[in-house]
Specification:
Length: 442
């Protein structure tokens, strides 16, 4: 039976293939990293703890955290704004033709410009100029204090803080209170402004201080003397009249001129005497806007402050153990002599054996009391020596007093008192106390 040629062909083909070398290896194509994925965030998310644990609770919490943090790996596309087209160059006007005037922008629909015009040209945004600030300041002062808003009161306070003659006489707290009651007065040219009832600041216009010209009736040939004040805050005369004289008002041309932000008058309440009325007066040389701070308001503010201080002192003394049964009139006698004083930590107020110079009432803080004790020590040389040591005895707390016996009887203090921390005290000095006792015994 003849053989089939197919197996022989397959066999020969297999032999040929086994002798051939293997095909050359091919490189894996490189992967392109997406620009929309944060691979650092993805790597941190995949290696988060709890994903590969077998505890069901940890797996659920890790899964929920993974789902929550997963959207963060995708970066947001940056929105690109459309390009701005460049303006075409201006065409040159043809020869022989008139140049057209540049067209102004149409501001008819700009609300800010209309509001600016209504406010007298004041700018709404950005820093204001001094003229604009002054115009706004005058507009606020034209309103009654009760009609001003909190922001307007604050603006008045800030402007008053820029006047050195006010800040040198009033603390910031009092100036803020007085700023809520200041008013503006309009004076026409040639008016005489009497400043003995308040403190005045010229905001607009020019004025000249009014001085006194004295004429001697007996010796008419003697030259007249005019006294020009050096400081317009307090117009006082430096010489006395030797003979009977008649005073006449005179405004010499060499007087100092009071311009914008100049001040005159007083914050003290004075009696309306003719000489003082003339001393605090100015004459306006043109229409003026003048700010006025009434002296009565300042006096009222000071009296209220004094009342509050006295209540604080009375409350402190009544809380001290030895003064609870004292009559109120006697305590008010002490209040008139009290002064506030603060001491730093570790300050020695009085040493043992010395007479203290004041009576103290502790308002805040505490003091440590030490007693000076003499002891015996036996060192290695076997010789007994006397050694002085300060032994801690206790503390003086708030609302306690000390020093009364030492001051009144003039006996030495038996302990050393040292402040434990920052201490505020109300003190009565011994000289004030003795002067008061002498006045009462006279």
């Amino acid at each position: 039976m003849p053989k089939s040629p197919l197996p022989e062909a397959i066999l020969s083909h297999m032999v040929a293939i086994s002798n051939l070398p293997p095909p050359p290896p091919r490189s894996i194509p490189s992967l392109k990293m997406s620009k929309l994925i944060d691979y650092g965030q993805l790597n941190a998310l995949c290696h988060r703890r709890g994903l590969h644990q077998r505890n069901l609770r940890n797996i659920l919490s890790a899964h929920n955290m993974f789902i929550k943090e997963y959207p963060k790996i995708f970066l947001k596309k940056k929105t690109k704004l459309p390009k701005l087209f460049e303006e075409e160059g201006k065409r040159k006007p043809a020869e022989g033709t008139e140049e057209s005037q540049p067209q102004q922008p149409d501001d008819s629909h700009n609300v800010a410009i209309h509001v600016k015009k209504e406010h007298g040209g004041l700018t709404l945004y950005g820093p204001k100029k001094s003229e604009e600030q002054l115009t706004e300041f005058l507009a606020i002062l034209k309103k009654l204090p009760i009609h001003r808003t909190p922001s307007e009161h604050n603006a008045v306070w800030k402007m008053l803080k820029k006047i050195p003659d006010l800040t040198s006489q009033l603390i910031d707290e009092h100036l803020k209170i007085l700023s809520k009651s200041v008013i503006s007065e309009t004076w026409i040219k040639g008016s005489t402004v009497v400043g003995n009832d308040g403190f005045y600041v010229i905001l607009k216009g020019v004025a000249r201080p009014r001085t006194q010209m004295y004429k001697n009736l007996i010796e008419e040939n003697e030259p007249t003397a005019s006294f020009i004040p050096q400081n317009f805050h307090s117009f006082a005369f430096s010489e006395e009249l030797r003979d009977s004289v008649v005073s006449a008002m005179h405004i010499p041309s060499c007087d100092p001129v009071l311009g914008q932000w100049s001040t005159f008058g007083t914050l003290e309440v004075t009696a309306k005497i003719e000489s003082e009325t003339k001393a605090y007066s100015v004459v306006t040389e043109e229409d003026c806007e003048i700010l006025k701070i009434p002296a009565k308001n300042c006096a009222k503010l000071k009296s209220e402050k004094t009342k509050l201080e006295n209540k604080r002192k009375v409350k402190l003394i009544l809380k001290c153990p030895y003064y609870k049964e004292w009559p109120t009139l006697s305590i008010y006698e002490l209040v008139a002599l009290i002064k506030w004083k603060t001491f730093p930590p570790g300050h020695v107020i009085v040493e043992s054996g010395n007479i203290i110079s004041f009576v103290a009432y502790i308002n805040s803080g505490y003091c440590k009391i030490y007693r000076n004790i003499v002891g015996l020590s036996k060192p290695q040389s076997k010789k007994v020596k006397k050694v002085q040591k300060l032994v801690y005895m206790g503390t003086l707390q708030e609302k306690e007093s000390f020093g009364e016996i030492s001051v009144l009887l003039q006996v030495p203090f038996t302990c050393t008192v040292v402040t434990g921390n920052g201490v505020e005290m109300a003190i009565i000095e011994d000289k004030d106390l003795f002067d008061r006792v002498e006045c009462l015994t006279c």
